[in-house]
Write a structure and sequence with these properties.
The chain is an alpha/beta fold. It has one domain (2-256): 3-Layer(aba) Sandwich (Rossmann fold). 34% of the residues lie in helices and 24% in strands. The chain contains 10 helices and 10 strands. The strands form 2 sheets. A 6-stranded mixed sheet has the order 6-7-8-3-9-10, with helices on both faces. A hairpin with a 2-residue loop joins strand 4 (73-78) and strand 5. The longest helix has 12 residues, at 137-148.
Amino acid sequence: MAIVAATAGRLGSVSTDAALELRGVTKMFGALAAIGDVTMTVRAGERRAVLGSNGAGKTTLFNCITGDFLPTSGTIRLFGEDVTRFPAHERIRRGLRRTYQISLLLGGLTVADNVYLACRGVSRGRFSLLRPRRGDVLVARAAELIEAVHLTASSQTLVSELSYGQQRQLEIALALAGAPRLILFDEPAAGLSPTERAELVAILTGLPPHIGFIIIEHDMDVALRVAESVTMMHNGRIFKEGTPAEIENDPEVQELYLGGGHG
């Protein structure tokens, strides 16, 4: 796939260092600890699922990682650099990307225009007022990303005319703009049909190996198929960690999260 060569060439060899290190991360809202003493390490290129019931602290954790919230205490290191107090845009510059539960797209523009603007937004020429010319490298890059998320046939379609599942696919393309090294996916399968979920799994498993991701997902079938490691959260704290098979077969997880009797 063209995206692999385009992005991997800029990054060089895949690092074996940690992509993300959380040490004692806590976020208080008044007297309420939304997350408490979270310590976790995600390797470069690792695919991690973060699971838990509603209110477990998953989205708050994402907000602290991305800089939407600053933690009350603890440290966050991104590719070896302490980014605990960094604003969100500085974390983006270091290779962090995120999708949200609610689609944030430009409905009046085409798929191609949305992806082009995302590529332009993280490029050095993002403030230029000139229209793209024939052979513009960013136009070519946008086409590669559209292909990577299986939307080539819809590239000239207005985003407002896409199905909900296609809009979720487009969000992944936007997250791939630039040179991401770690992407946070916040419930990308929510509201998707079985066919659309299968398409999502194919897209996520087909991402270049040097791009790691963390996925929050309530659909266990999706989460356990795309992840190589799983972190379970409960009441704002890490409850269990392990492989998908270990988590799926853990009696405590089945009782707490799956309701018991999960086969």
